[in-house]
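Input record (Table S2, row 229):
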Amino acid sequence: MHNSIPVIAIDGPSASGKGTVAELVAAQLGFHYLDSGALYRIVALAAKQQNIDWDDALAIAKCAKTLDIQFKDGQVMLNGNDISDAIRTEEMGKGASRVAVHAPLRAALLDLQHSFCKAPGLVADGRDMGTVIFPNAPLKVFLTAATEVRAQRRYQQLLNKKQSGSNSQISYADILLDLQERDARDKGRASAPLIMAKDAILLETDHLSIAQAVDHVLQNYQSFTNLSA
Ligand code: C5P
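Output record (cytidine-5'-monophosphate complex):
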């Protein structure tokens, strides 16, 4: 990892909109983008394919070390196969949060995450970007919204998907429960729990549009570059 390369760490709970915000900030600045949640989703999918129990910490970490993961033009490739859609299901979201509790897996994914830190800069999105993976990031943002707001956004996303052909059953109550479970698991785990870094900026998006949230991050980054110029 090169300390001279600027990193913007964006952490927060599920469905806070941080993925979309992080991607747009990266595009605006011409920075690389790390979707660290995708890595945990990929491991959950690979484990399922190989009949490995999501609760088996050592087998999960061993499995992760064998995977050939590539991010190409918005596609996620695992061992040469396009798994972009397969990792975005609610099942893999839940699987990701189950495998993510294992410290050996988190250690196994460390080097891969650091390898994304390349010039001219990186926007990294996840749960522990500012606390564990890039603790020296000059800008750390904790992006969040009330659980009900996040559940409503996720519900709307799934409804939109359904309109475009997906036929899975959706209920707002199930989504809310699922988010509450995931939040509790992400915050309560011993290894790299979801917490706001002491030096992070809190960005509550309940009443913000995506564009406003992006502007807010960019303005903060601009202040940082002005200060360090
Ligand atoms: O961000 P996304 O919803 O894709 O992440 C899926 C799950 O992966 C999260 O609920 C969390 O348990 C885990 N995760 C993590 N650390 C990260 C990113 C994601 O533990 N840096």
